[in-house]
Amino acid sequence: MNIKNILNRAEIIGNINGDIAEKILNLNDTELVQLQKLAKSLKEKYYNRNISFFYPGQYFPSISITGSYCEQNCKHCNKHYLVSMVQAPTPDILLKKCQELDKNGAVGCLISGGFDKEAKLPFENFITTLKKIKSTTNLILNLHTGLINKELALQLGEIGIDVVSFDVTADDYTIKEIYGLNKTKNDYMKSLNWLLASKIKFIAPHICIGLNPNNILSEFQALSLIKDMNPKLIVLIALIPTRGTPLENQTPPSPEFISKIICLTRLMYPKSQISLGCMRPKKRNIKVETELMALNSGIDRLVLPSRKTIDYAISNSFIVSHFNSCCAVPTHLIKPFNLKI
Fold first, then answer.
1. 49-61 residue pLDDT tens
2. What whole-number distance in Å separates Cα of residue 258 and Cα of residue 228?
3. Are 288 and 309 in contact (CB under 8 A)?
4. Which residues constitute the domain of residue 139?
5. Residue 9 φ/ψ, nearest 5 degrees
6. Is the dihedral of CA 128, 179, 326, 151 positive or negative?
7. For 228, how many CA atoms within 13 A lie in the half-sphere containing its CB?
8. Would you call 145 exposed, middle or buried from its count of C-beta atoms within 10 A (0-12, 13-18, 19+)?
């Protein structure tokens, strides 16, 4: 099947199988332009030309409840990103930090940290504190849970956690060799089902592009895993080869490949919003090219856009909104702001 056949078959929308996905991910540059046009037209069918830019920063910081400690120690992170987070390793410190954020006008925060050897965020001792934060502040809480059991998922729903960001993978190599886990895709599916069975209103699956360059269908397999949840939002992030990690010399996914994954996501989930998150290669030329290709591939949300990307969106008649928030937060919970030019 060639690209013309793929693009002319309306029945494939929402019904992409592995064979079609592989063909899409192997398209040449000329064919990619055609694919982008299809993905963008689908996006505009359901979401017009709206594009939301997100700026987490001081108004929506990331907090680590384990400090710089992590038992899982994944090969692409090696604890590197924990160091730059706000440190809150005890319930009392977390409460104080959140009260300060609320007092200073913050929108909310991402509560994350290092995972244990079972790929779980060890937040059991923080449940009472999370409940108090929800009941005494105006903060939106986004919790990065990792794998989770039924009891904890239900508790999070009862205390009113607004959003759960949940990493999804279905690739055995990534799970075992990159994450270092003795788990399978079924463990991720079980956790996701517990979260969906809770009262948590917004579950945002996150899929990392480029962790297994030897399996072109790795991201497709993760996207297929969330099919039954009918996600309102899918967050795509991408490998950053980080100095001091075992993957520091691995080639990051190209802007073209990231574009193909965005397009594939749009074809699989035409009615879902798609965000390109903050974790992605930041070198300036790659950053700008990735962002511009993302805009033309049917993206709905983008974190920390470059000035060039903002100008491009405005000059090309996108309907632009700016939010001081994590991109996993539903926009009806937050107010946009006017970006100072």
1. 999 999 999 999 9
2. 24
3. yes
4. 3-328
5. -100, 95
6. negative
7. 7
8. buried
Around Cβ 328, how many Cβ atoms within 10 Å? 28
In this predicted model, what pLDDT tens digit does every residue of 311-341 receive, in sequence order? 999 999 999 999 999 999 999 999 999 887 6
Find out whether 108 and 329 touch, Cβ atoms under 8 Å: yes
Tell whether 18 is covered by a domain: yes
Amino acid at 212: N
Sequence-distant (≥ 6) Cβ neighbours of residue 286 within 8 angstroms: 252, 255
Helix (H) or strand (E) holding 166: strand 163-167
Instruction: Give me the sign of the Cα torsion angle 338, 162, 234, 304.
Output: positive
Residue 136 forms part of a structural domain: yes
CA distance 245 to 138: 37
Domain contains 338: no
Encode 269-309 in three state secondary structure. CCCCEEEECCCCCCCHHHHHHHHHHHHCCCCCEEECCCHHH
Cα 133 from Cα 111, distance rounded (Å)? 12
Q: Which residues contact 255 (CB under 8 A, 6 or more apart)?
A: 286, 289, 290, 293
State the CATH number of the domain containing residue 129.
3.20.20.70
Its pTM stands at 0.95
Residues, the chain, total?
Answer: 341
- Which is nearest to 65 in space by CA: 102, 92, 101? 92
Does residue 339 sit within a domain? no
The residue to which tokens 């998150």 are assigned: 277
Percent of the chain topping pLDDT 90: 83
Q: How many domains does the chain have?
A: 1
Q: For the chain, how far is it from start to end, CA to CA, in angstroms? A: 47
CB 276 within 8 A of CB 308: no
* Alpha-helical regions (H) of the chain: 3-8, 18-25, 29-47, 91-103, 127-136, 150-159, 172-173, 185-197, 218-225, 255-268, 284-295, 307-315
